[in-house]
UniProtKB/TrEMBL annotation:
<feature type="domain" description="AAA+ ATPase">
    <location>
        <begin position="165"/>
        <end position="352"/>
    </location>
</feature>
<dbReference type="InterPro" id="IPR027417">
    <property type="entry name" value="P-loop_NTPase"/>
</dbReference>
<dbReference type="InterPro" id="IPR003593">
    <property type="entry name" value="AAA+_ATPase"/>
</dbReference>
<protein>
    <submittedName>
        <fullName>ATPase with chaperone activity, associated with Flp pilus assembly</fullName>
    </submittedName>
</protein>
């Protein structure tokens, strides 16, 4: 999942990435071996049959100069041949018999067919340059992002300080108190853009990083049409908003490590790697299929040392910076999930609780405006006194939205219109909450 923001690349951000990752002009400057790039080009030609230079440049996300150098290498090795022009559109390239055999051999080792990957050493530097732990969030920023929400000022301040700290955060409290809603909107505070590689290369393993379900691309207006373009930021990097990944009870331990698919012969990045330079929210903590202690123990080293060790299989491991804000959200008692020694490692624990009547009223008014309903203070008084009061029910932030929406549902069903009545709110109340009269 991702949250929509108004991120745009700033001058300083772009200059830092430009110095770190300029357009490569030669194979050597890509940080990849000529045989590696040669195999990748052969796989693309095997996949497409015949490609001209513009298509190869687009597929590989490299400049024309680099692609030309790779093609020259492959032609000298008799793996690629020139098939002539097509309608005056330039030379086309195809595989020789030797090239087809080489492509099949390359595909048996790695099924990856995509943009040229970014070398892992350069990726480590990129993550550090784009760190989310810049500590620049102010009280004014918090108010601008959450001012329309009914959230106590001390809670806003706690959240802001926690985000600036670079430490993990645990948000806990009863269900319906806004934990998920607030967590999913924290990314709005980080408006800077970042550059995300299509994939990274760890020796011979290619791991896809860019995920359109996670990373929201931004149009930076770079001229990408010139085949010989040697300026600007490396084409293997995409300008995106800072990502946010939210996972809940469906989370498994396998999703937190590099996974290899033997059928496609491709590596899949773990969720926290896709969330790099952004936020990773583990919602419904304690509802996962693994024991809470097992899941929490997975984060001890990354939280303390700011680096993560990923398993590539076959006894191979890779160390990468752990640059993200880790948020745990739960409606369970944190002491039931972990002991105090572990909870101290998390750093910030923020409790979301029930509302005061005046806070509930503010949310009720907001919802009536959103639903285009006339606000009736007498109707609200009835709900608070006769419904909540009679059953001693706590005031929960999500209730006004749900009760008013359900009352409108019934009004539409019976063909009524006009202001909501106490009868309709009482009907919504009894439909919303579990009734235990039969016990």
């Amino acid at each position: 999942m991702y949250a929509i923001s108004n991120s745009r690349p700033t001058g300083n951000d772009r200059e830092a990435v430009q110095r770190l990752a300029p357009q490569p002009r030669t194979i050597l400057e890509t940080g990849l071996a000529d045989n590696f790039l040669g195999d990748l080009v052969c796989k693309h030609l095997h996949d497409a049959g015949v490609l001209d230079m513009p298509r190869l440049v687009e597929r590989l996300a490299l400049t024309g100069a680099v692609v030309e150098e790779v093609l020259t290498f492959l032609r000298q090795d008799h793996r690629v041949e020139v098939l002539g022009q097509a309608g005056g559109q330039g030379l086309r390239y195809g595989l020789t018999e030797r090239g087809r055999n080489a492509a099949r051999d390359a595909l048996s080792r790695s099924g990856y067919i995509g943009a040229a990957p970014f070398p892992v050493n350069a990726y480590r530097s990129l993550l550090k340059v784009q760190t989310i732990h810049h500590g620049r969030i102010s009280a004014r920023d918090m108010q601008a992002s959450f001012g329309s929400m009914v959230l106590a000022q001390n809670m806003l301040d706690q959240l802001g300080v926690a985000l600036n700290s670079g430490r993990a955060i645990m948000i806990y409290g009863p269900a319906g108190t806004g934990k998920t809603y607030v967590s999913s909107r924290l990314i709005r505070l980080f408006s800077e853009s970042i550059w995300v590689p299509y994939a990274i290369a760890i020796n011979d393993a290619v791991i896809e990083i860019y995920d359109p379900q996670v990373h929201r691309r931004l149009d930076v207006g770079d001229p990408q049409n010139s085949l010989m373009l040697n300026e600007g930021i490396d084409r293997r990097l995409l300008c995106c908003e800072r990502p946010i990944v939210i996972t809940g009870g469906e989370l498994t331990m396998e999703q937190l490590d590099i996974r290899y698919d033997p059928f496609t012969r491709q590596y899949q990045a773990p969720l926290q790697l896709k969330a790099s330079n952004g936020l990773f929210v583990i919602d419904d903590m304690g509802r996962q299929r693994m024991a809470p202690a097992e899941l929490l123990n997975r984060w001890i080293v990354p939280m303390e040392e700011k680096r993560d060790f990923l398993n590539l299989g076959g006894g191979r491991h890779c160390e990468l910076p752990f640059d993200l804000i880790l948020v745990f959200s739960t409606n369970l008692n944190p002491l039931e999930l972990a002991d105090e020694a572990f909870l101290r490692r998390i750093g910030y624990k923020l409790q979301f609780g029930y509302l005061k009547p005046e806070e509930y009223e503010r949310i009720w008014v907001q919802e009536t405006e959103r639903l285009n309903i006339q606000y009736d203070p007498q109707l609200l008084r009835y709900v608070l006194d006769e419904l909540y009061g009679a059953e001693n029910m706590p005031l929960v932030p999500c209730h006004p939205r749900d009760l008013l929406s359900m009352a409108l549902d019934r009004q539409r069903y019976v063909g009524a219109s006009g202001p909501l009545s106490t009868l309709e709110l009482e009907w919504a109340w009894h439909s919303y909450f579990v009734q235990l009269d039969f016990l």
